[in-house]
Design brief:
This protein is of the alpha/beta class and 266 residues long. The chain has helices at 29-38, 53-61, 76-84, 104-116, 132-135, 170-174, 196-202, 209-214, 218-223, 243-254; strands at 3-9, 23-24, 27-28, 45-50, 66-68, 91-95, 122-129, 142-145, 151-155, 185-195, 229-232. α3 crosses α7.
Length: 266
Amino acid sequence: MAIVAIIPARYSSTRFPGKPLAKIGGKPMVQHVYESVSKAGGLDRVLVATDDYRILETVKDFGGEAVLTSKNHASGTDRLAEVARKLTAEWVINVQGDLPFIRPQTISRTLRPLRRDRSISMGTARTPIYQKEEWVNPNVVKVITDRNGFALYFSRAPIPYIREHAGFSHRSLAGTDSREKRIWGYRHIGVYVYRRDFLLKFSRLRPSPLERIEGLEQLRALAHGYRIRVADVEEPSVEVDTPADLKRAEQYLRSPGNSPSGGRKK
């Protein structure tokens, strides 16, 4: 029944080469992600999967665990599957390396539905979008779900398109939260929970046209008829895709109450 969290981290990136080693508050981003993930309860192991010796050595230097993977993987899922094949685990959690301050409860809540219902093979999470600028940003992936919390679609576009004259509005569709803040939609968070056997199957599926168009691997699962359970969480809007995002991460870290990540809870 082991639960293993894996953080894929590659050095090459079209928008931000060397991103995992970029410093936030004096620490490489991969260290922030590792320490944040390690705070989640119930994890038996946390490791970084990388194709670059610089990242491997950096993780080892701060006391983390890392494994070297092939440089030929087309996606982070393929990198994850390479590591998972050598593991004995019931669940494998994929936490994207661009989430330096991911909250431990986000990981726990994403895992919970799969532990309760063994028919669910894959889960992820979403959080409300409160800023229109984030809603229309193609670097921010949006998700819509059915009434039971399963994903209908993921997109870089603002979804769904709302015809105001048809009697709907952003407020009537997405609503407001308990603080009466307007919700534009829901941002997908880059954390995935897989049953290990499904992850190995998923990595062998043929990429779908929609996956290639949007550049979103999770659309492969939907295209092949698999369901993705989406947990609702409150997660800070701190994803680092570009150097400009790195500056925002620095600002978040310096904000009151946002101290650097701590060590792993035992």
